[in-house]
Amino acid sequence: MKILKDKSISDVQGFKTAGIAAGFKKSGKKDLALIYSEKKAVSAGTFTTNKVKAAPVILNMEYIKNENTQAIIVNSGQANACTGEAGFEDAKVISKITADELGLNEKEVLQASTGVIGVSIPMDIMKNGIKNVCALKSNEGGKNTVEAIMTTDTKTKEITVEILLGGKKVLISGIAKGSGMIKPNMATMLSFVVTDANISKAMLNKVVKASVKDSYNMISVDGDTSTNDMMICIANGAAQNELIDSENEEFIIFKEALDFVNKELAKKMARDGEGATKLIEVEVVNAKDLESAKMCAMSVVSSNLVKAALFGSDPNWGRIVCAVGYSGADFDPNKVDVQFKSLVGEIKVFENGMNIYFNEEKASKILEQEKIVIYVNLNEGEYAAKAWGCDLTYKYVKINGEYRT
Amino acid sequence: MKILKDKSISDVQGFKTAGIAAGFKKSGKKDLALIYSEKKAVSAGTFTTNKVKAAPVILNMEYIKNENTQAIIVNSGQANACTGEAGFEDAKVISKITADELGLNEKEVLQASTGVIGVSIPMDIMKNGIKNVCALKSNEGGKNTVEAIMTTDTKTKEITVEILLGGKKVLISGIAKGSGMIKPNMATMLSFVVTDANISKAMLNKVVKASVKDSYNMISVDGDTSTNDMMICIANGAAQNELIDSENEEFIIFKEALDFVNKELAKKMARDGEGATKLIEVEVVNAKDLESAKMCAMSVVSSNLVKAALFGSDPNWGRIVCAVGYSGADFDPNKVDVQFKSLVGEIKVFENGMNIYFNEEKASKILEQEKIVIYVNLNEGEYAAKAWGCDLTYKYVKINGEYRT
Questions:
Q1: Which of A250, A347, B3, B386 is the most exposed place for a label (fewest CB within 10 A)?
Q2: Which residues does the annotation say bind substrate (chains A, B) (predicted)?
Q3: Quick one: pLDDT at residue B186?
């Protein structure tokens, strides 16, 4: 697998994209994105488990069952969540006019909205915007597209990889947005991955569902699962590899690459968590079972006390062990070891469930880095899991606590 | 039931208490407390569900089975958590020497420690301290006792009520500490309630377990369940009411009063949450079942985004509805109403699962108060629940993010 640093989603064979400033954001920044496949394509996705689902989520859950999916239209600025029956009707119109513009059936168009909850989509802006964004779709549109889906994000989030499937070059390329209201439980924020791989809808569905569990579902910024989360993958087969319709060797290669793409996008979201200064990775090893490893990793990465301690580069292992303890994981408290790791070194701070002597200054230096690993060894079994998050900072409170009218 | 504002735990018949500065805290503040019953007494308690349990918690879970409990010894400064076998041996010695000093059996002495995790109890200080604190026990010791159990608390937390049981005056008086690492799941932080009621151990156990569920288990400051949480109630029968040994009328009167005491102490902890400027009460009504009402209330009061919004007096109902949505509660999103209430008024901001027009300025004024109620009507059934918490502020990050060596 090769990472292609200069490529974007619009470089994937058979895909054209665009991103424009349609007028949803008062700031005048880009706010409407289109991802379009020229060829017929299969799609798979996962959506928020929040019982309060935004209109686009509800509509997508129906339309994604369609055998063919050729477009995703995304606006940022208004979330079209808690907008009632009228909001749902708006969502249907959005798919319909996008479909008309592209010569598709409305069920072949998926959509997403992100932004303020409870605000209806300004449909005049949407109608004009859809015309303009469809007209501008191109193979150079990737950068604009990823910018147009951002809200409080400070950085764009994208990645493109190349793999070989039966001798054919295949690209997988994803873009994502997300910074706050992030503790996906199923899909996440917005993440769109396109590929020219030739894969059946059933197999794509299988690989997407599995991949989401270890990537987007293992990050937390603030523990809040949004009403609008979604991850959608579209595969148009333009690479002309032999159709993947079973869990064969190509399926495994494809899965590994998709996992990589999804984890990279997930980590980028965690690192760009609202107000964050650091990416925190919690690696739990030697757990009795996978569920325990995952619960333990998510519990530590979600703890406000751990997050605040890491903001201050405080080697406060007590808070980590406490979060391991209330995680619900099955483990023996007397066997737990904890280490801190970063680019400048590593240090053990807790062993066999007990405090040990360690050089606090060295530990603090390790924690001053921008990427920190909290390594928790449960010394019980053979299962491992990773989760990602960020520190809790003054800026998080500022971003979310300053009342903006 | 009468609230006795000037009374404290040492005013309950047959109880003597003391609080001293023994030297556990570098600040020189009070840090060792004794609660002592002159008469034989029954006890009941609940303890942290964290799998990592501090030594005093493990020891108490054994000793509290004893038919007689006459003392609780509490130090603040070191938590005696994650201190291994040596820490457990220390805990046994602490009960033993306290028992010797008071002429009791070691199983008749419970204990608690609170403070930094992973630090062993300085046993020289403890041995001297126990001698001194036992010598000082008196009926005027209440104020010193409640001060001696504080750590990051900014205010003492105590309450005393009087009830009549079969014509006899009965006092119930409680003290508590807790400010951070607070999302009790079973018992909570430290809370000690004493009463001169005459009640059997079995009935005391029953009433304590029930009462904790609706009080301490319904508050959250930061979602972190501590390793040292405990709530203990001691009843010595000095009021000479007829023994309560069934769920009779007196049991119900006693339960109501104990519920009040526990809820007041729980709310005091929530209001004194680290860095908090406001007490937040989430009241969920008309839920399908009790579990849904409770999950919904706890989800909203625990949301970082809701807490940060309330710090800024931002009537951001979207975050509240989002937290209701991911709570796991069983409800219909299209029936939800949300109101804000405080001393200066109330305002509906969300109706039938939809955004409605409301006066944002008025809503913000309501949220500027020190005590805020978020009223969520699920319009589904007949169950209700309340949860308490606080806002998320710069100061929370400062308290927990500044590295103190």
A1: B3
A2: 151, 177, 188, 274, 400, 405
A3: 40
| Interface subset of A 166-195, CB within 8 angstroms of B | 180-181, 185
- Residue A55 DSSP symbol: H
Instruction: Give me the residue label for tokens 């300053």.
Output: A402
State the Cα–Cα distance between residues B93 and B319, nearest whole angstrom: 50
What number of H helices and E strands is found in chain B? 11, 17
pLDDT at B183 over 80: no
- CATH number, residue B186: 3.60.70.12
Angle at B220 between CA B215 and CA B224, to 5 degrees: 120
Q: Which residues in chain A are closer than 8 Å to B366, comparing Cβ atoms?
A: none
Domain count, chain A: 2
Kindly state whether residues B8 and B31 are assigned to the same domain.
yes
B78 touches chain A (CB under 8 A): no
> How much of chain B is in helix, strand and coil states, percent to nearest 5?
35, 30, 35
Range of the domain at A363: 279-401
Burial bucket for residue A28 (CB in 10 Å: 0-12, 13-18, 19+): exposed
Are A267 and A285 part of one and the same domain?
no
User: Which amino acid is residue A394, in one-letter code?
Assistant: Y
Contact list in A for residue B227 (CB cut-off 8 A) is: 321-322, 325
Q: In sequence order, what E strands does B297-403 have?
A: 337-342, 345-351, 354-355, 371-377, 383-390
**How many angstroms separate the CA of residue A405 from the nearest CA in chain B?**
8
Q: What's the CA gap between A313 and B389, in Å, rounded?
A: 27
**Pair of tokens at residue B280:** 């937040």
Could you report the predicted ipTM of this complex, rounded to two decimals? 0.81
Residues B89 and B174 in one domain: yes
Taking residues B100-108, what's their average pLDDT? 98
Query: Do B124 and B59 fall into the same domain?
Result: yes
Is residue A288 domain-shared with residue A266, that is, in the same domain?
Answer: no
- Verify that A221 and A312 share a domain, yes or no: no
Tell me which H or E stretch contains A158. strand A157-165
For B103: left if phi > 0, alpha if psi spans -120 to 50, otherwise beta; the answer is left
Q: What is the CATH number of the domain that holds A293?
A: 3.10.20.340
Domain boundary among A271, A298, A320: A271
Please give the pLDDT value at position A405: 37
What are the structure tokens assigned to B349, written together? 């901001």
Positive or negative, the Cα torsion across B101, B103, B107, B112? negative
For the annotated catalytic residues of B, the residue numbers are 188
In this prediction, residue A385 carries a pLDDT of 94
Q: Which residue stretches of chain A have pLDDT < 70?
A: 180-189, 403-405
Q: How far is it between the farthest Cα atoms of chain A?
A: 69
C-alpha B175/C-alpha A150 separation (Å) is 49
Which residues, listed in sequence order, are joined to residue B19 by a DSSP beta bridge? B33
Side chain identity at residue B305, one-letter code: L
CB atoms within 10 A of CB A369: 17
Q: Are A300 and A312 in contact (CB under 8 A)?
A: no
Q: Which amino acid would we find at residue B120?
A: S
For residue B326, pLDDT beyond 70: yes
Residues 94-153 of A with CB under 8 A from B: 116-120
- Residue B403 is nearest to which of A51, A312, A323, comparing CB atoms? A312
In this prediction, residue B95 has a pLDDT band, given cuts at 50, 70 and 90, of very high
User: 3-state SS of chain A: helix, strand, coil percent to 5?
Assistant: 35, 30, 35
Least confident of B168-182, B203-217, B338-352: B168-182
Strands (E), A258-344: 279-287, 337-342
Between chains, do A396 and B308 touch, taking CB under 8 Å as contact?
yes
